Amino acid sequence: MNDCELWRDIRDTFRFDVQPPWERIISLKHVRNIVPVSYSPNGIPLKLDEEGTPDPKEFSFAYHNPEDLHPEHLWVDWFAGFDADDSRRVGLQFVEGLYADKLAFIGLLATIAIIVVSIVWCVKGGELQTVFTVMGFVLTLVSGKLSQSSDSASANGHAAQVALAALYYQVAYSG
After folding, report:
1. Going by C-beta distance under 8 Å and a sequence separation of 6 or more, which residues neighbour residue 104?
2. Per-residue pLDDT for 61 more than 60?
3. For residue 5, is pLDDT > 50?
4. 33, 88, 39: which is closest to 64 by C-alpha?
5. What is the per-residue pLDDT across 94-108, written as a single tens digit (0 to 9) for each?
6. How many CB atoms lie within 10 A of CB 5?
7. Going by DSSP bridges, is the β-strand pair 89-98/45-47 parallel, antiparallel, or unpaired?
8. Which of 21, 24, 69, 81 is deepest in the core (most CB within 10 A)?
9. Taking a C-beta distance cutoff of 8 angstroms, is the pair 116, 47 a contact?
10. What is residue 94's three-state secondary structure?
11. What integer best gives the mean pLDDT of the chain?
């Protein structure tokens, strides 16, 4: 195995075994950095700052561009020695970032859809106050789902579920 094959295997393993399928399809996240880590006895990852450890930028370049690596064994040899003489548990930490432009585009589409539905609802004879109430809850749901997909606290998603339940009771039991 050479360096190109090693990094293709690492990339494929991360994409197909670690990332959920919906995350690969929607592609809101990307790998920003890869950091070699060792784990403390209680399982906390600690950045490995040892002599001869490649820079995280070198890891990122190799991960994103394995075909640009020369078919040598520099990375293979480094990984072989990475944990060969170390009694600690070691590994790679994949640091992901969000594609802000894709998130903004999804938010824009949701806003446009809400405006169109609101206009159609009013034209069909719906009450304006009900339109604003329903669309406010729909916007809360969409923002809650987006925040869950970006690994934020799931409180927004739960708030959206509570808001939808409140909307159901308001609409169902309104006079």
Report:
1. none
2. yes
3. yes
4. 33
5. 888 877 888 788 778
6. 13
7. unpaired
8. 69
9. no
10. strand
11. 75
- Distance between CA atoms of 173 and 175, rounded to whole angstroms? 6
Tokens, residue 19: 């990332």
Long-range CB contacts (< 8 A, 24+ apart) of 96-100? 96/29, 96/30, 96/31, 96/32, 97/29, 97/30, 97/31, 97/32, 98/28, 98/29, 98/150, 99/27, 99/28, 99/29, 99/30
Which tokens hold the place of 57?
């930028």
Q: How far apart are CA 84 and CA 19, in angstroms?
A: 28
Query: Residues 29, 93: contact at Cβ < 8 Å?
Result: no
Q: Which tokens sit at 8? A: 């293709």
Tokens representing 128 are 């304006």
**Could you read off the pLDDT of 63-97 as tens digits, one per residue?**
888 888 877 888 888 777 766 666 667 788 888 88
Residues whose CB is less than 8 angstroms from the CB of residue 141 and which lie 6 or more positions away in sequence, other chains included: 160, 161, 163, 164
